[in-house]
Amino acid sequence: MKKTALIMAGGHGERFWPRSRKNLPKQFLSLTEDGKTLIQLTVERILPLVDMKDIYISTNKDYLDLVAEQLPDIPKENILCEPIGRNTAPCIGMGAAYIHKRSGDSCMIVLPSDHLIKYNQMFVTTLEDACEIALENGNLVTIGIAPTYAETGYGYIRFNPSESYKRGYKVLNFAEKPNIELAKQYVSSNEYLWNSGMFVWKTSTILDAFQHIMPDVYDGLMIIHDAIGTSAEEDVIRREFPKFPSISIDYGVMEKSDKIYTLPGNFGWDDVGSWLAMERIRQTNEFGNIADGNVITINTNNCIIQANQKLIACIGLEDLVIVDTEDATLICDKTSTNDIKKVIENLKVCNRNEYL
Amino acid sequence: MKKTALIMAGGHGERFWPRSRKNLPKQFLSLTEDGKTLIQLTVERILPLVDMKDIYISTNKDYLDLVAEQLPDIPKENILCEPIGRNTAPCIGMGAAYIHKRSGDSCMIVLPSDHLIKYNQMFVTTLEDACEIALENGNLVTIGIAPTYAETGYGYIRFNPSESYKRGYKVLNFAEKPNIELAKQYVSSNEYLWNSGMFVWKTSTILDAFQHIMPDVYDGLMIIHDAIGTSAEEDVIRREFPKFPSISIDYGVMEKSDKIYTLPGNFGWDDVGSWLAMERIRQTNEFGNIADGNVITINTNNCIIQANQKLIACIGLEDLVIVDTEDATLICDKTSTNDIKKVIENLKVCNRNEYL
């Protein structure tokens, strides 16, 4: 069966401020040395499996131009515009409706647009395995990541180690972000995987799941499905999409289905959750620094330094994140990157929208 | 006797980089909240004692325009240009020659242009006392500063506590920058003052001292003296001045004279030796920060932050100096401000003159 893909690119995270902005979220940034943006790498990564013409991007009107600019080879009609943010369930539902209408039933791969993967070949192999499972019995497949430490910032997937199918395992339940104690238990149990937000299923399967689990959403999706390719398409989406509840695919659909499998991925996944990710995705120099651009360091160690045009001179520094942009400079202790959102709150309260 | 002043403004320190540059040294920077530059404050401070027309500025050709711009009320002919840097003895000698030629014998006050003084009235009173001593017996007077701690970055003046004249004390010798042990001994002995580089004497006295102690320099100064006001003035200076040895007035003249007095000044003197001086000359906020301009701080304490146009967002920082300028940003641990010179060396070696 033909493979298709939906890449979700509507997010607007704040954790890469000041480089990420309201009008330039993380998926459109280049953080690796090859100069490619995260969404460009995401597309490139699945090309061994999916034809360019079968890759769909779901985003919103603010980012339509960015998507078209960064991904000129994606057919314009494959760029789907959510009129309003409604979390992943409606996003995926509409994507499935489009793909099903255009290609008939196909094996649909759903991917976030702002993650990084180190071992592309292993990733492709995992997706191939996932497709195999998805093609049988109306299975829904989610790609899990074997946890390497007790992370409290991710959701977890609990699987049954004794109920396997091909290379996958039956999912028992999804667990929300745990506290540190619980996270440690999850990791040491060897029955939990990190929830990466990557899914594989047939479009017919996921639409069936909507029909049974969220029938109201399904009805809306079918109205959209019928309007695709007609002159009413845009109007119908603008009318129907906002009616959908804001809910994730995990809690809205997956958790309520009983044919869910997970495949433990082991392909160097990184959700690039904060500036600290730079140390995982880039090589540090002999002083432990990642220094990009016009930088001089003296007695400076283990810092992440992103210069822009200006010279950045660092003296006697340890464990800082320094990011310079045209109009704002961040200087942040590595232990405090979560507080970047406080800066953004401050800017919002003070109506300094030029920095958001 | 009329009071005159020579303000020495030829220095080109590097310790306020990136705000101070080769073409904008510290004396021309504003570091206080009133927005006035250090040299402007120096002139203002002595106006109760010296007429504007009797204030002379010694500088070099690179800074002639800056002096004229920042001190428009100083007569153009009072701005003296050293063709080459030769330390303080030749600078002061030439200043004395000018002042003596123009005003006849006068009580000459010599001041650095890049220090700050907190209590102006006490400063004026001290200078008045110094003038009184200088008018008698051909005394040379140097203003000392009662040390408040064992500073190793200053020279010291040793005085004889039992040989006082008016409010001054006889100077025994000048001591170079001591190591920390010696500095502690100096301070606890109560017989040492910091050498502030401020002097008072009659022009006739200092010229006599040159005649006896540095007769070759004296001869050159007299050639200059005779040329002042003639069409040969510039040529003569350009020819004679570079012949002078590069030596400070302390070691060249003062130390070899036996009629030196020092007056302990207690007027909140600060040599503004590094960015750390900001904490002495400015009020810190409730978090111990001095934050100027477009700055947001989150959990940031005891930092000196000088923004320029850009927003500077500081998160989780302690004890840093952050200085932003149009083309360079310094981020420096407070204990490392001495290493600013390493950045400058690096820039010199790499021929990046635009940042010097």
Sheet-strand content of chain A, in percent, reads 25-35%
The helix tally of chain A amounts to 11
Total beta strands of chain A: 17
Report how far the terminal alpha carbons of chain A are from each other. 44 Å
Uncertain residue segments of chain A: none
Helix content of chain A: 25-40%
How confident is the prediction overall: mean pLDDT of chain A? 96
Q: Give me the Rg of chain A, rounded.
A: 21 Å
Order of helices and strands of chain A: EHEHEHEEHEEEHEHHHHEEHEEEEEEH
Biggest sheet of chain A, strands in spatial order?
6-9-7-8-10
Assembly state of the chains shown: homodimer
For the largest interface, the chains and their residue counts are: A-B, 34 and 34 residues
Shape of chain A: globular
Question: What this model shows, in words?
Answer:
The structure is a homodimer of 356-residue chains. With 356 residues, chain A is of the alpha/beta class. In chain A, 30% of the residues lie in helices and 26% in strands. Chain A contains 11 helices and 17 strands. Chains A and B meet through strand 15, strand 16, strand 17 and helix 11 of A and strand 15, strand 16, strand 17 and helix 11 of B. Strand 15 (311-315) of chain A pairs parallel with strand 17 (328-333) of chain B.
Write a brief caption for the model.
The structure is a homodimer of 356-residue chains. In chain A, 30% of the residues lie in helices and 26% in strands.
